[in-house]
Amino acid sequence: MRINTRILKSIQALPSFPATIQKVMALAGDPDSSLTELTAVIRLDPAITANILRICNSAYFGLRRPVDNVSDAIMHMGKKNVMRAVMAAGLSRYFRTAKGYDVKGGDLWEHAVAVALMSQICASRISGSDDPILFTAGVLHDIGKMVMGEFVEEAWQKIRELTEKQKYSFLEAEEEVIGVNHAVLGGEIALIWKFPEEIIRAIAYHHRPDLLADGDIVPWIVYLSNQVCHVMGIGVGTDALAYRAVGDVAGRFQLKQRDLEEMMAQLHRSMQEARELVSIVPEAGGNGKGKG
After folding, report:
1. What is the pLDDT of residues 32-44, one digit of tens each?
2. What is the model's pTM?
3. What CATH architecture applies to the domain 95-292?
């Protein structure tokens, strides 16, 4: 893997990952953590506190009296909703328009949230549980595009020639022309941000989970979820149809066509809820509007 100096500088220019979100994710994934611990972390971040209170007092929850403190807000919302609100408040700033992929910030953010939700839906269908780590891996699976966009745009003609004339996958074309693909680069960013190894692997291999050991299930779930969102056309760019499939992933998890259709319907409902709950588009840095 060759990461040139300009790409390295672009990675270093990214804002550091918010410590508050790291702590909230850790608590959300710990079944023994308490709401008191969650409150203690969130209340130290004014921006996230304001977002939590805004959402809790929205029409979505329909409370009779306004909530004016984080502790009560978390109690009303529950861990899962709080985690999604925290992610929306802290992560959407990274999802600006990705030039080379021809996708606006709002659309890319919507795609990220859709893959995160679908990952949890898949996990629930496959194993009966939806580990919070899947939501994080899903939201961040395309974070590498935030750095790669300008380099893909510069090399667009060469990449297009490889994908259209020589039948390269988009991932292979990125590697050939730029020296690294957006998935591996995303894994490097997650490493710099000190994420758990499981999330790093899921990001780095979300297009090629077949390169990992068979027991590593999270990258496969993120891969399948990403494919489903591409098929549904949720926040996709020009690269969406230029990736090579890695086998019958649905069959790997014994999912039939009817299962996939039911999961897509569930995702549609979840996205409607997510738009209302975490205001996906307004939080996406004002760089365009999501679809739907």
Report:
1. 888 888 889 988 8
2. 0.85
3. Orthogonal Bundle (1.10)
